[in-house]
Amino acid sequence: MPCASILIVDDEPGIQESLGGVLRDEGYRVESVDSGEACLERLRKAAFDVVLLDIWLPGIDGLETLEKIRALPTPPVVIMISGHGSIETAVRATKLGAFDFIEKPLALEKTLLTVKHAVEQLRLAVQNRLLEEAVHGPSRIIGDSVPMKALRQQLALAAPTHGRVLIYGESGTGKELVARALHRMSPRAGQPFVEVNCAAIPEELIESELFGHVKGSFTGAVADKVGKFEQADGGTLFLDEVGDMSLRTQSKVLRVLEEQRFTPVGSGHDLSVDVRVISATNKHLEDEILKGNFREDLFYRLNVIPFYVPALREHPEDIPALTRYFAEEFARIYGRRPKQFTESALELLMQYRWPGNVRELKNLVERLVIMVPGDRIERRHLPAHLLRDGTGTAVPGSAVSAGPFTSLYDARSAYERNLILRKLEENQGNVSRTAEALGLERSHLYRKMKTLGISPQNG
Ligand SMILES: Nc1ncnc2c1ncn2[C@@H]1O[C@H](COP(=O)(O)OP(=O)(O)OP(=O)(O)O)[C@@H](O)[C@H]1O
Ligand SMILES: [Mg+2]
Q: Secondary structure of the chain in the HEC alphabet?
């Protein structure tokens, strides 16, 4: 870890000085404070990797400070400094989550070694986290706007069932995040989550990818291959970009969904599987059906529970929270101090139309965290196209502005969705009352909700 940062909490100026000096000589960045209160205050403003915390402090003592530190969203590693006779307390501190303790008078070697171990442990934790994210993707769904709240409610309702889910949403809106959340919150969570990107696999390989093949069944089939359906047995299969499957593959997938069985390429035997299928698309599959590109019967099989992940411009009020979340994530990943976005910078982010949705925002925040020196990200640090393309109309909390939409269809759907969600919320999810408030027949509202991917629910 390049230049780990250390906060010393001790009310003896002698300790602050000598310990600080030794650690600085080793290349650490060091600051000191003289009380638990000052420590917590400092940690709220800046991130430190390691805290060296004296047990006897004026004001709140070391143990209480430790408990408060551990309750922070991203606590540093804490090493307790114990005076004579306070070893028992130090042991108690390790039970409360302290990493280790060192004794006064401080032995140089032991102190440096303990700090080194603490930094090492932190580095491992970051590495694990990166690995975890590389394998599973980051998992938190951020956003408290009306459409995101609705999405979360829908997740809670749909996840525990075995119902097939079709997730609609533009590129970069978080469809995969939702698919993983559905799996994680389901009884299948302990079983595999297997992903297939139907757009990325060449047509001639997709069948063997999905269903597997036996050795020698075609040129290049040098060994038996287990298909994705079989890999996902007991778990969830995520068919990403399902709108890009050929008609031929569609009919094969349809059969698996109907019979829960399939034949590997070149095999004479059927295999049966228990797989929950979640699919995602950024196409309007209804249009693709009309054009003859997508099978209607497959559509109905996949679309038992429709989910709609809104475009970012449909919920600009979540942009500040998303920005802060990504800024913290990347600061941690790159071992930087967290950076604050100014109000004015956030405002500009909220006005931009984000054609690449959350992914585009995330990439921008990553770049800014790396490139901007200092702790503040201001309007002037943001790329020029944000200023140029900001429509200035997407005011938080307002209904969706017409400005950012490319097609009338999208604008209308987004507007209708937002309106219906808001009215549903006002009426505690009661569809009849919502229909009345909107001046619609109840059955008409139901149909609309179904096409817009809003599921009826209470509360
Ligand atoms: N609400 C959210 N909270 C936190 N992170 C999010 C959110 N929405 C999207 N992300 C992040 O944005 C990135 C893009 O999301 P994801 O890959 O799920 O989008 P997608 O809809 O599958 O995109 P594509 O259609 O391009 O495959 C991911 O890194 C994801 O973790
Ligand atoms: Mg995706």
A: CCCCEEEEECCCHHHHHHHHHHHHHCCCEEEEECCHHHHHHHHHHCCCCEEEEECCCCCCCHHHHHHHHHCCCCCCEEEEEECCCCHHHHHHHHHCCCCEEEECCCCHHHHHHHHHHHHHHHHHHHHHHHHHHHHHCCCCCCCCCHHHHHHHHHHHHHCCCCCCEEEECCCCCCHHHHHHHHHHCCCCCCCCEEEEECCCCCHHHHHHHHHEECCCCCCCCCCCEECHHHHCCCCEEEEECHHHCCHHHHHHHHHHHHHCEECCECCCCCEECCCEEEEEECCCHHHHHHCCCCCHHHHHHHCCEEEECCCHHHCHHHHHHHHHHHHHHHHHHCCCCCCEECHHHHHHHHHCCCCCHHHHHHHHHHHHHHHCCCCEECHHHCCHHHHHHCCCCCCCCCCCCCCCCCCHHHHHHHHHHHHHHHHHHHCCCCHHHHHHHHCCCHHHHHHHHHHHCCCCCCC
Q: Is the pLDDT of residue 66 over 90?
A: yes
Taking the centre of ligand 1 as the mean of its atom positions, its distance from the CA of residue 152, in whole angstroms, is: 15
Residues 231 and 86 in one domain: no
Residue nearest to ligand 1 atom 10, measured at CA? 174
In a domain, 337, yes or no: yes
Pocket of ligand 1 (CB under 6 A): 137-138, 140-143, 169, 171-177, 282, 322, 358-359, 362
* Of 92-96, 112-116, 121-125, 341-345, minimum mean pLDDT range: 121-125
Find the 176 Cα to ligand 2 centroid distance in Å: 5
Give pTM, 2 decimals: 0.63
Looking up residue 191, the CATH number of its domain turns out to be: 3.40.50.300
Last residue of one domain, picked from the residues 287, 308, 329: 308
Does one domain contain both 164 and 300? Answer: yes
Q: Give nearest CA residue, ligand 1 atom 25.
A: 171
Whether residue 241 sits in one domain with residue 218: yes
Return mean pLDDT, the chain: 86
Note whether residue 177 is domain-resident: yes
